[in-house]
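Inputs:
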Amino acid sequence: MTDYQPTIGLEVHCELSTATKLFCGCPNEFGAEPNTNVCPVCLGLPGSLPVLNATTVEFALRLAEALSFNVPERSIFARKNYFYPDMPKDYQVSQYEDPILADGVLDVAGTTIRIERAHLEEDTGKSQHIGGGGRIHGADHSLIDYNRAGVPLMEIVSRPDITSAEQARGYATELRSVLLAIGVSDVKMEEGSMRVDANVSVRPVGATGELGTKVEVKNMNSIRSLGRAIDHEIERQIAALEAGERIVQETRHWDEADGTTHGMRSKEGSSDYRYFPEPDLLPVAPTEEQRARVRGSLPELPAARRARLVAEWGLAEHDARVLVDVPGLAVLAEAAVVALSAGTPKGGTPKDVANWCTGEVLAYLNESGLSAEVLPLAPDGLAELVGLVADGTLSRGLAKDVLDEALREPKRPKQIVEERGLAQVSDEGELAAVVDAVIAANAETVESYRSGDDKARKKKRGFLMGEAMKATKGQGNPQLLNRLLDERLSG
Amino acid sequence: MSAPATDLAAAVRSGTQRARDVVEERLADIEARDPELHAFLLVLGDDARVAADAVDAAVAAGDDPGPLSGIPVVLKDNLCVRGTPTTCGSRILDGWRPPYTATVVERVKRAGGIVLGKTNLDEFAMGSSTENSAFGPTRNPHDVSRVPGGSSGGSAAAVAAGFGLLGLGSDTGGSIRQPAALCGVVGVKPTYGMVSRYGLVAFASSLDQIGPFATTVEDAARLLDVIAGPDPFDSTCIPDVPPALEPTLRDGVAGLRIGIIEELTDVDGVQQEVRAAVEAAAAALEAAGATVERVSVPSTVYGLSAYYLIAPAEASSNLARYDGVRYGLRVEAEDVATMNAATRAAGFGPEVKRRIMLGTYALSAGYYDAYYGQAQRIRTLIIRDLARVYESCDALLSPTSPTVAFEVGARTADPLTMYLSDVCTIPSNLAGHAAMSVPWGTGAENLPVGVQVLAPALGEPVMFRVAQALEEAAP
């Protein structure tokens, strides 16, 4: 059997998170009532004209800085002509020969993946087909929501530099981190604000010159399914070649349920989009001042930030990635770390802060669907909590309860501790009295502890410790209680 | 010479004439005479009365309603007016009422102008005779057996007949200037980007420009001054506010250098009387102190070919949206693609279909460079040729139309002959330059002749001075 090497290129579409659409003032928001965020322009009514949203150009310039793109002196919008009911003008305003960005690079785990281009274009509306299995062919009728029509998209097209599904996942993950960090998209694959299509081909290892016939795979709704789809497509193509078949250049649909790709109904004839320059818009010519302004305002990029958190806070690479990739989480953590050195009580480390963030805070964000920016928990509140654990006021268990409330209510951890009387008891005399009382009340257990084997001793000791903790309503300092109990039992 | 619209505005502003009386008089005239001419697709009598009363009330209250106070204005029916049917002379827009108003119409209303109605046109402004309207042709007020020209034939005829004192049209390849010439009125195609296209239903976006019709150059300047200037809703507008034209109108032509374009004047197909009119006009300018010379702009002879690739190409895309999905006509069918096709087959007339097919072909893969690409190169060539000529000329002259108004039906069977009507006007659209037609006596059959004055981009001030001088000297 021949060994094959895959060649993969990715096309990433992301919705830009601008306040308004690409060519009109309608709100760019997800989930509004159908056909409420529309106007003559995004409905393509006769006589209406597009006016470019300048923020989209600024977003493109941010991406240019982040991925070292070349910004051509001028780029041109073009019309892509084809009939489709959810496209109001029956052409899409996109960019064709002269995209706004050319020749960028993205570092994926030490390998440089080249990016051919990135361009701006408008999204289409959304069709819902009633009857006929939800597909346009055979549907009884269709409903169209034009809220999404005219939402700005950035299409980012890599060179075929990717050689495995794992690397493709890495590319998509890193690109997503960058888009998020520079604030141009919320990159939610589930909501469709980031879509990734893969061009996959294979050829025998060592082959040079022509690449194998490429197949475009669509409809992956997570980075995980992107990897699965590519792996499957590579295997399918190798199997076909081994069986002496030819690979057909086509678009295939990834089916998440059965884990395979299916050829899509091929369009009659080849599509001819009759691109030509959009006469209603002027060429886009970003100025050096614009670029300088963007350069000055660009945040730290994810790779650099992760490296810094690993180096300065001693985090594991994985934890650093989680912190950086969850919107607002790293901001919360970094502000809390600053507060840590300023606030009272003192103590606690950046790593403690990070652990709370990637643990309980993240769990709550996932459960509630909230973003870190809107939590009632302020950075200095989080720092306070870490301090309360570090100085022994709270056990980790109690701290979890306090954090649970602080994530939901605008209360400081100290306030919660006071209100609920949760402070940990570390007074040795008080705890010694508790331990003595437990031992007195459980003489039998103490007896069987002393006479039992290791297993029995462990069990009995655990019971006694539990009783002591119960007697302090869970607030006894566990280290102190353990020591006192050991002293009594061995005495 | 008096300027009817400008004079009327002064009378209304001073309170010596009531806008309501003017409107009633015009409406009565339209009712009596328009059935024969068919200049209007829709007369907005009630709206006009309300607007006129508002102007009169403002004057009575001591306010100034503006430079168009009480002037009846007619609109080509490819300009959107909120809530008012806008047909583009086509069945495909059946029942559609725009939810917004074109910028130019807003400006006319804000200046005190009274919108009298929507005028007939060749379907989607494609034509040179107004015979391509789905609602029947418009007749030339000078001879009702003849066409008024097109595509803005309804506005030209309405102004020539005195229904409206001013009119708005759109000019993609001569659609204001050619009917102005054939109807004996003034018609202006401003520099591309001088007037907002927002609310003008697009034919060919890179060529379309809205402009005025008037019976005098001064009135045309008044209307252009009102509608010109940048608009945040049209990003192809020139960002600077242009200088007002009225103040310099009578600055004369002494010292101006005028060129007569050989390729558009001294050629077969230009009627003898039309060429004589251009010569006489040039002589009049010379007498007024200008210098005149013959100039050659060789690439203009390719203008027609380039135009009939670029305009249909853009039109094929602009008119794709009339698919029966969202508004206008829908012919029901079992699936979307069949419905689209049936709707377009029923909704568009033959000339529109011809141009959609031409344009679709010109943009097709494998043909793009040979057709659309080549046409754009000719466009560049024309711009370069004209720039060279404008190094030694301030303005140019040519016929507006090679012939006077032709008989209704004379050219409908032969599209190429019809297309030749625009041979003199097309270069200015391709170049994005300013041009206007000024009446100069009569030619064959005693029908009006127009002389075209051409100027470079933003050359309106000089162009209007030349036009004014011509008007003053015209027979």
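Chain B has a mean pLDDT of 97. Flag for discussion at group meeting.
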